[in-house]
Amino acid sequence: MKKLKRLLKRLFWLSLLVVVSIVVFNTSIYHSRQISVESITPYAIPEAVMQRLSDVVQITTVSYPGRIDTSAFRTFASYLDSQYVLVDSFLEKEVINDFSLVYKWPGKNPRLEPILLIGHIDVVPVERESWSQWTHPPYSGEISDGHVWGRGTLDDKVSILGVLEAFELLLAEGYQPERTVYLACGHDEEVGGQQGAKAIARQFEQRKLNFAFVLDEGMIVLNDALPGLPKPVALIGTAEKGYTTLELSVQMSDGGHSSMPPSETTIGILSRAVHNLETHPFPAEISGPTKELFRYTGPEMTLPMKAVFANLWLTEGLIRRQLSTNPTTNAVLRTTIAPTIIEGGLKENVLPTSARATVNFRIAPGQTVNSVIEYVNEVVDDERVSVQVKPGAFASEPSKISATDAFGFKALEQTAREIFPEAIVAPSLVIVATDSRHYESVAQQVYRFMPVRIDKADTKRIHGIDERISFENYRSMIRFYRQLILNSCK
Q: 293-339 pLDDT, tens per residue?
């Protein structure tokens, strides 16, 4: 027995030594994936750009399901024509479905595949009850405290104007790109993009256009993105999650008086189904763009986090558990489940015969709307609960994953390193839906990145209260788009 104990003890220490050796070795060869670029002098951006951004914020291009204020969208288009004189003179402009805009800047070499930059004109509404919480009114375009304030300064008029400002600067220099550059501006992104981006993409398909890459909004340059990572990260979205909303409903033949309740009620059955979903989340996975994110950021971390990410074979379970505790990082690991509406009952003393719950899902790459429905039915495990896609609700499958070794990513990577030299660049997963999904039929490589540097706290301003952009961030955006065109169109 003593010999056996000594043998087991030796095996334990030997195994530990082997594990430690592997960890140390993997950490030692865990080298940076960041490319080296030559520093560039920041391009001078005229102060007038702030006023133009302020002006378009004041044009309330709000989209609602099934309706828009048409006069506001026409005013927006007219304003662009009047302010971007060189763009209006030298670029070809096309109007799609009355309100979406497409600009074409012909290149010198028609054999080169064009590039496509996209943004959206519309913004989300602001509830009247929340106006008093804004530092400046949401559609005021106030220029104050080093910022331009209001809806559209982060999502997403700012991208459209940033590109147009870059066009105008390059045109003033007499520049003509080698390859053709397009700018597509949808007018209904916030309600699904069916009349805007989808219609534009259909036109491109009919003309047999194929783009070298597409760039839309999506990710940002984020400070304090991950524990142990002291540098900001320029997160380039290489894929985005899918989206579906399911309706769970329970229908019973009898209601009755609340003084004689049965052992199970429609509301009770439905509540248990929702509870089961919340307590049985989809499995967490470190795969696809999220795995690539860690491959790019891990080598830049300080010890011991660098060792943790260098040895996923040993630490992956620990990382999944830790990241799952935070809503932001949890969202990049799995398909998320969010009950958003529950309905049932008409009167406090009447048992309802029906009850419904609306549950929103953001679908991770590798899964589908159908696989989500199958999972929900499996978890709920109750034939009395009907599960279906909510009638009339928007739905989309997860996007394809764009490559990190392709021309488009390399151009974005170089440009991000030049404009944000203090940041590292990493691919990532976009957890919200963008117009970019509509363009997959005309481009193999679709990326999602808005070149602004902000803190995590500022991300709440997107669709939230006090949306704003700093002067320096807006200047950096314009510099980025200008430099991206130069890097992509040599």
A: 999 999 999 999 999 999 999 999 999 999 999 998 999 999 999 99
pLDDT the model gives residue 92? 98
Residue 403: pLDDT above 90?
yes
DSSP assignment letter at 59: S
Tokens 């080296």 sit at which residue? 36
Give which of 329, 399, 332 is closest to 368, Cα–Cα: 399
Q: Rounded to whole angstroms, how far apart are CA atoms 184 and 217?
A: 12
Mean pLDDT over residues 267-296, rounded?
Answer: 97
Cβ(243)–Cβ(396) below 8 Å: yes
In the chain, % helix, strand, coil (3-state, to 5) comes to 40, 20, 35
Measured distance CA(143)–CA(49) in Å, rounded:
11
Catalytic residues: 122, 189
Q: What percent of the chain has pLDDT over 90?
A: 89
* pLDDT recorded at residue 15: 84
* Inter-axis angle of helices 471-488 and 48-57, nearest 10: 100
- Dihedrals φ, ψ of 463, to 5°? 70, 5
Alpha-carbon distance of 473 to 364, in angstroms, equals 30
Residues 329 and 398: their CA atoms lie apart, in Å, by 18
What is the spatial distance between Cα 401 and Cα 164, in angstroms, rounded to a whole number?
A: 28
The DSSP-derived string for 290-353 is HHHHHHHHGGGSPTTHHHHHHTHHHHHHHHHHHHTTSHHHHTTTS-EEEEEEEEE-SSTTB--S
Residue 8 has pLDDT above 80, yes or no: no
What integer pLDDT is reported at residue 11 of this predicted model?
83
- Hey, what domains does the chain have and what are their CATH numbers? 48-239+399-488 (3.40.630.10), 242-389 (3.30.70.360)
pTM to 2 decimal places? 0.94
DSSP class of residue 396? Answer: B
Tokens of 335: 């398909």
* C-beta separation of 101 from 94 below 8 A: yes
Residues 6 or more apart whose Cβ sits within 8 Å of residue 322: none
Tens of pLDDT, residue by residue over 187-227, are 999 999 999 999 999 999 999 999 999 999 999 999 999 88
Rounded to 10 deg, the angle between the 48-57 and 70-83 helix axes is 170
Whether 95 has a pLDDT exceeding 80, the answer reads yes
